[in-house]
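Standup notes
- DV: blocked on the single-chain target, sequence here:
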Amino acid sequence: MVQQVTNHRADRRRLIGRIAARSLLALGGIITFLGVVLVVAAWTEDVAIDRDTGYANAEVVADSFTRTLVRFYTPDGAEHIPQTGVLYPAGLNVGDVVEVEYRQDNPEIVRVAGRGAVVTLLPVGLTLLAVWAVLVPSIWALRRVRPERTEPPAPDVL
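- DV (later): unblocked, structure below
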């Protein structure tokens, strides 16, 4: 009877370890997928701008954690403040004037001139490296076979 309880606990512990390891692996896969999608999206936006590029000087009008808004004027005199913000805004402050490149047929797609999707490779790459540097040892520790502890049999009581 004691042996059955011990085997049941060991089986349950292995099952929980296996589920935890697979969950961590799935989490790593999701984070990797999101990183790749981020780089592909940045590259796609760059290709869209490069097909029909317009240039303008833009003033930074707002800067928050989620986006940096710029105001610029196209040659037809129209004012544009893209609601999604400018791409690759690192180092910009409110009031700065910076040259931007935008897609002429859709001025909502705008980036800081001279910057491109290559800027996303380092942060995404370092993030993925850090994630997998933590996940791999964790998954290995959960998947490793632990020796079962054998408890001495209970003494027979008469």
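- Follow-up: Residues 97 and 115 are 15 Å apart (CA to CA).
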